[in-house]
Amino acid sequence: MKIILTHEVSGLGAAGDVVDVKDGYARNYLVPRGFAIRWTKGGEKDVAQIRRARKIHEIATIEQANSIKGQLEAVKVRLAVRSGDAGRLFGSVTPADIASAIKAAGGPEVDKRRVELGSPIKTLGSHQVSVRLHPEVAAQLGVEVVAA
C-alpha cells in the first residue's frame, strides 16, 4: 500500500515521503496513529505542503545537528514526578515531559517527536534517552527521574 508520511518514522522515512509498506502495517499502525495518510492523486498536493512544513522545523545541516547534540549532552535533566513507596511512578514519563524538562534545564528547544524512549520510563532513577536530531545524528541524554 502506498502512503504519505505525515511524521518522521524511524526506519521508514521523513514527513512528506511517499513509501510503499505492507497493508496491515499501514492500516493498523501508521494511519490510525496519524503518522501517515493514504496515497491518492489528490494527496500529491499534500506532499508539497508537508515538505514545506518539514523544512521549517528540520535541522538543516549535520554541523548544526552536531552543535545541538553537544548542547544536549552537556545538559543535566532532572524530572520530579509523583511516585509510590517502592519507587514506581504513577503513570510514566512521556517524550513531551522530557522535551519540556530539557528546555527548563537550559537546553535547546527539542520537538517531542524527536525524543525516542527505548521502553516506557516507569521507575525512579537514571535513564538513557535518545534524541534524533538529523537522520545521521542522535544525541544520548541522561535523564534523572526523582520523587516530587
UniProtKB/TrEMBL annotation:
Membrane listed as a keyword: no
Gene name for this UniProt entry: rplI
Q: Which GO terms describe its biological process?
A: translation
User: What HAMAP family has UniProt attached to this entry?
Assistant: Ribosomal_bL9
Q: Which NCBIfam families match?
A: L9
**Which family does this protein fall into?**
Belongs to the bacterial ribosomal protein bL9 family.
**Under which name does UniProt file this protein?**
Large ribosomal subunit protein bL9
Q: Name one GO cellular component term.
A: ribonucleoprotein complex
Organism for this UniProt entry:
Streptomyces pristinaespiralis (strain ATCC 25486 / DSM 40338 / CBS 914.69 / JCM 4507 / KCC S-0507 / NBRC 13074 / NRRL 2958 / 5647)
Q: Which residues form the Ribosomal protein L9 domain?
A: 13-40
From the record, what ranges are coiled-coil? none
GO MF annotation terms: rRNA binding; structural constituent of ribosome
State what this protein does: Binds to the 23S rRNA.
Cited Pfam families? Ribosomal_L9_C, Ribosomal_L9_N
Keywords, ordered alphabetically: Ribonucleoprotein, Ribosomal protein, RNA-binding, rRNA-binding
Keyword Oxidoreductase assigned? no
Family matches, as InterPro entries:
Ribosomal_bL9 (IPR000244), Ribosomal_bL9/RNase_H1_N (IPR009027), Ribosomal_bL9_bac/chp (IPR020594), Ribosomal_bL9_C (IPR020069), Ribosomal_bL9_C_sf (IPR036791), Ribosomal_bL9_N (IPR020070), Ribosomal_bL9_N_sf (IPR036935)
